[in-house]
Amino acid sequence: MKKKTQKVLISLKKARTLMDKVIKMVEEDKYCIDIIQQNLAIIWLLKSTNLNLLEWHLGCCFVDAAKANDVQKIDEMTQEILTIVKTAQNK
Predict the structure, then answer these.
(1) Which residues of the chain have pLDDT under 70?
(2) Is 87 in contact with 47 (CB distance < 8 Å)?
(3) Which pLDDT tens digit goes with each residue over 14-31?
(4) Which pLDDT does position 72 carry in this prediction?
């Protein structure tokens, strides 16, 4: 397994574990601020993972399109990336 794939999977599994913890905290009626702090940890982890995925995409998929000199694919991928960045900024 590639190192980048492993890094992303570890982050996603950590987020899933944290999510299970937050669900349990809500079910047990834990203190709201404690729940919010854990929820923010999940959000941060997912944002970080998303950035790693984008870096991965740029470093392999986008580079491959550039090496192939596939102008149409590069344009499509550029639009996809801009859409992702705009979406991330609006959240």
Answers:
(1) 1, 91
(2) no
(3) 999 999 999 999 999 999
(4) 93
Domain boundaries, the chain: 3-89
Which one, of 53, 49, 73, lies nearest residue 63 by Cα? 73
- Whether 11 contacts 52, CB under 8 Å: yes
The tokens describing 62, both together, are 């986008």
Q: What is the model's pLDDT at position 1?
A: 62
Q: What is the pLDDT of residue 30?
A: 98
22: number of Cβ within 10 Å:
19
Number of Cβ atoms within 10 Å of the Cβ of 64? 12
8: CB partners within 8 A, 6+ apart = 49, 52, 53, 56
Q: 25: which DSSP letter?
A: H
Q: Which CATH class is domain 3-89?
A: mainly alpha
